[in-house]
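Page 42, continued from yesterday. The earlier attempt failed because a stray header line got pasted into the input along with the sequence. Redoing it now with the clean sequence only.
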Amino acid sequence: MSSAITGCVIFIKVRIVKGWKWENSWLLFSLLGMFVFNWAVAFATVPRLCDVYQEAFPGALAVPVVSGVCWGFGAICFGVGVAATGFARGYAVIMGVILLGTVVPMVTLLVDEVGTARGILTLCSLVVMVAGFVICGVAGVQKEREQGTRTGAITRVSTISPKVGLLICVLSGLFSCMTNVGFAHSETLMKLASQSDAWKYCAGNAVWAVLFTSGGLANLAYCGYLLRKNDSLKAYLGKGLVRNVLLVVAMSAMWIGSFILYGVGACMLGKWGTVTGWPHEAQGPVWPAYMAAWREPGEGLPYPDNTFLDPELSVWPGGICLPPPDDNLPSPGLVMAEGRCASVSVTSCSRFRPLTLIRPPARF
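This time it went through. Structure tokens are written below.
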């Protein structure tokens, strides 16, 4: 539970990092959380870590490496899929599919116990969780219909087809669940770490170091592509640099800390640790995401962090909202924001001036 609560900090970036585009904050987050802090913790908690990897190479390292690459692509697919399908529908699909991270270890490592009371209860609880996501997704789409123009028209800001986006969301869930699958099947590497005098509950840190490094490379490559495409590298020279860096540092430390806590907790729970623990870890970011998604229009909901929208813009289910409106803003016409154009129709709002997006200004 502590790891899940700590993992919620990933939404700090969405809420309060200002003046940076998604790729600016995610690049720094990837460097710190997936490399610097990740390896610092591994070296601090696993004695003779290099010797452990040398002894494990190549067989015992293959599982975390492959799992990490899959997770890295899953993180990229998350942003693309949600942008194409709409937040409510896309997030529900991804979080439902990601629960396979519980099913796979159970049927591969505990196949003889699937039919026991514990196994049946675990499967039933997963069904309840999936049903909950379906309800949240349907309710979210209905809210978009009430406050927007059509299903997903407001939060879907990609030129990718919604059907293709739905497939991407399914792939995101499948790839993302490989985090737990890789951890659960890295017993050999954890045993070697324990034999190296590491505290047995921290032996999993040797797995996280490899897994998130391989996944981090995919994230860095994608961030580099977006920095070049959107010419957003210059954002690092803008105002609020120190503030944003400190926020991303805190976010990175708490994010990797959530997985460290999960690894400790899973080891303490024994052979069922990765089965019963994963639903708690994977669903950590759900409540802040849906709390944000159900804000009232006047509160100005920050859009998910994976779009081309300028970070200074706010979004609510009825359209894109600019901060305190400019009285000279033209009624239906061409609006320029950070050099990006969009054809919009303007309506009124008590706190913000909402802009209903007609044509996405750029392909995500």
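Notes: The chain has 16 helices and five strands.
Reminder to self: strip header lines before submitting.
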